[in-house]
Design goal:
alpha/beta; Trna Endonuclease, Chain: A, domain 1; 3 domains; 3-stranded mixed beta sheet; 12 strands; about 45% helix; about 20% strand; globular
């Protein structure tokens, strides 16, 4: 008997051959953002929903519902949207956390919100942060997305934002970043006007296997959505509770675009400036609902 949390959903196909009838067992496959296919694994969805703080009984209901709706080749985007809509009806704060990865994608085509977002995370971690710095290396000048300093450490970081989950940060980017930071490190030692103790490459999606191998070999710090295993971007968001306003389910897409245009990136900003939403024309009822959700989302998850 196939249970709700088996590793594969199976299709039984009847085949007729000259010598009789037999059954072929095939796993239902799903299509990932990059176009590749893999067997549907409900345990992955169970784990992701759990990380978002979804109660187990709600997880079970959502997964059972999705398993009934699955068809071979269904996209992960469609599965996510289906799970998100179900979750939003039963556990809105968990829905906001579950949508975090796509909420970061929703920052839009410019790099500004992502730079602000990552900078605020590092500030909570105890760093003094400077963005968009022009620093002179040993050979040439470099524009550095973020400098993060604290006693005994000075990180020069390249922040690579992608607005599609299908795009990965590859080894060419890692090579380029490593070369820049080697030049900056040599320049800092010579000029003694600034310090660079290590380089870092941060992305909101994934790294290719080659980029990871190169980063590990060259001691270049890499932070992606799910890399490294601990201390990745998802973990940092959960730890610091620096949630983007694009994760709020009480805001429409146009609301989010308006706030981003005003350079409001974090839910924390809405909590610190209660008059902000009303000054932008939001009704009192809408503003109260948004602030209430932001407060719940930013509260430490037990």
């Amino acid at each position: 008997m196939v249970g709700p949390h088996c590793f594969y959903i199976l299709i039984f196909i009847k085949q007729v051959l000259s010598h009789g009838v037999y059954w072929v067992v095939m796993a239902i496959t799903i299509t990932k953002e990059d176009g590749t296919k893999e067997p549907f694994d409900p345990e992955k969805l169970h784990f992701t929903l759990g990380k978002a703080g979804t109660p187990k009984d709600v997880r079970d209901r959502i997964i059972a519902h999705i398993e009934r709706e699955l068809i071979d080749g269904m996209s992960t985007r469609k599965i996510y949207r289906h799970a998100f809509n179900l979750l939003r009806k039963e556990a809105r704060p968990a829905a906001a956390r579950y949508s975090m990865r796509r909420a970061v994608l929703a920052f839009g085509p410019t790099g500004f919100p992502f730079e602000t977002f990552v900078g605020e995370i590092f500030k909570v971690k105890g760093y003094r942060v400077h963005t968009d710095q022009i620093l002179k290396g040993s050979c040439v000048e470099h524009e550095v997305d973020m400098i993060a300093e604290r006693p005994g450490e000075c990180i020069a970081a390249e922040l690579k934002f992608h607005n599609s989950l299908a795009i990965k940060t590859d080894v060419q980017v890692a090579l380029y970043v490593e070369a820049r930071f080697e030049d900056l490190k040599a320049g800092s030692e010579r000029e003694q006007q600034f310090c660079v103790s290590r380089g870092m490459l941060v992305t909101n999606t994934k790294f290719t296997h080659q980029a990871i191998a190169y980063g590990e070999c060259k001691k270049l710090s890499l932070i992606g959505w799910n890399y490294p295993q601990e201390g990745n971007l998802h973990d940092l968001i959960a730890e610091t509770r620096m949630h983007p306003i694009t994760s709020l389910t009480t805001l429409s897409n146009s609301d989010k675009a308006r706030l981003l245009a005003e350079r409001v990136v974090l839910c924390q900003t809405l909590l610190e400036r209660h008059d902000l939403l009303s000054s932008l024309g939001f009704s009192s009822a809408k503003a109260d609902a948004v602030i209430a959700e932001a407060g719940t989302l930013c509260r430490k998850q037990l």
